[in-house]
Amino acid sequence: MEQPLLQIRHLTCERDDRDLFNDFDYKFSAGDIVQVEGENGSGKTTLLRILSGLYTSYQGDILYKGEPLSERSSEFQSDLLLIGHKLPIKSSLTVLENLRFLIGIKQTVNEKALFSALEAVGLKGYEYSLCQNLSAGQQRRVSLARLYISDARIWILDEIFTAIDLKGVTQLEALLQKKSTEGVMIIFTTHHKLSIPNLKTLCVNSLLTGNNHA
Amino acid sequence: MLEETKRQNLMGVLKVNFVRESLLAFRNRQSLVNPLVFFSIVIVLFPLGVSPEPSFLKPASIGLIWVTALLAMMLSLDHLFQLDYDDGSLEQLVLSAQPLYLIILVKTLTHWLLTGLPLILISPLFALMLHIDSQHLPTLLLTLLIGTPVISLIGGVGAALTVSLRSGGVLISLLVLPLTIPILIFGSGTVQASIDGLPISGHLAIMLLMLVLSITLAPFATAAALKMSVSN
């Protein structure tokens, strides 16, 4: 069997005296597109933060290419694109400046790619507008423009459809699907109903009972 | 080849950080002007409140300039990582796959360029106002030039430790001020020695040692504190 790109092994984690995960196993392979489902407060975001290496108060292992995450963190991080539910956008910078920073801390910046990504998310003509003058959805789109540029192979996306209109959601769906056929592994959370054919779901609510290998 | 692209990436990362910090500072001019205004007001009010006599101001002046510079820099420190923490940019920096040490060094030194350096540049004006002889000005500037980056670097550790707290401002001062006392003592001591006609190379060597130590060690502590702060 092919080695999974990212693997959760015997993950046990509790927060505020509540068990979130108990001896939980899961394997993610390249090209997987996995939706993490669960009620509010069920630990979706915690799971994504554990997988991205940010949250470390847990027992068990997260394996990246078969080795513990902490031992290959630099390689993993250059392979990872994390879009959290916080919006790392500064209101006093322009759209272009914000995007240039977000891309620039991960990979070499290609100015042309920035413009075409902003066009793809529907922000053409706003490149030099200050982000404080944009709507909530538009600000989110600035952050999402990263998806069109990133050459990371592992995408962890937390609530990326928040404040995005229906047309934008459809467009993002298509992008996620296209990327997954190119071998990008995508893990995301959302409360939207999506129509992605090869979508796998990982239901966080049922992890405690152990029947999670759907 | 791989090494080379990695190095290019690193330079790119440091550059975007520098550019962003500077842009943010110039767009929110308040943060740029605040330390300068504080510095000027305290030094202008001091002679009015105590005594404008040269016989009193002359011995007090060096200490006054140094203490005020220290406090002015502390004022701007609590925002060093706060905004980035609040909007999640800090997470992105931690996950940038480049050494956090260098990113933090660039961020802190940009902070110094934007707050410390302006203070140094206007300090001769106030030094003359406080009757410091102009022949001792170069020494004063030199000590400030060595000392203020140390304050930024040490302050960065405090700012990183308190970044996830709601009101970390007071705690920063409590954590950081004791650590900056040595640089304050040697900073004003060097100028005093120069006024007394004593050799200052020994003092300067110790100050430089503090600078080198804080450049090599403080960003490590800051990086560790930031990683801890984002991991909850």
Strand content of chain A: 15-25%
What is the end-to-end distance of chain A? 19 Å
Number of strands of chain A: 9
Q: Report the sheet with the most strands of chain A, covering strand number, pairing sense and barrel closure.
A: 5 strands, parallel
Poorly predicted spans of chain A: 209-214
- Rounded to the nearest angstrom, the distance between the terminal CA atoms of chain B is 37 Å
Fold blueprint:
The complex is a heterodimer of chains A (214) and B (232).
Chain A: E1 6-15, E2 18-28, E3 33-37, H1 44-51, E4 59-64, E5 67-68, H2 73-79, E6 80-83, H3 95-104, H4 111-120, H5 136-144, H6 146-149, E7 154-158, H7 166-181, E8 185-189, E9 200-203
Chain B: H1 2-27, H2 29-49, H3 54-77, H4 82-86, H5 89-94, H6 100-129, H7 137-161, H8 169-195, H9 201-230
Helix pairs in contact in B: 1-2, 1-6, 2-3, 2-6, 3-6, 3-7, 3-8, 6-7, 6-9, 7-8, 7-9, 8-9
Summarize this structure as a short list of keywords or feature phrases.
heterodimer, A: 214 residues, alpha/beta, Rossmann fold, five-stranded parallel beta sheet, four-stranded antiparallel beta sheet, 9 strands, 30% helix, B: mainly alpha, 9 helices, 84% helix
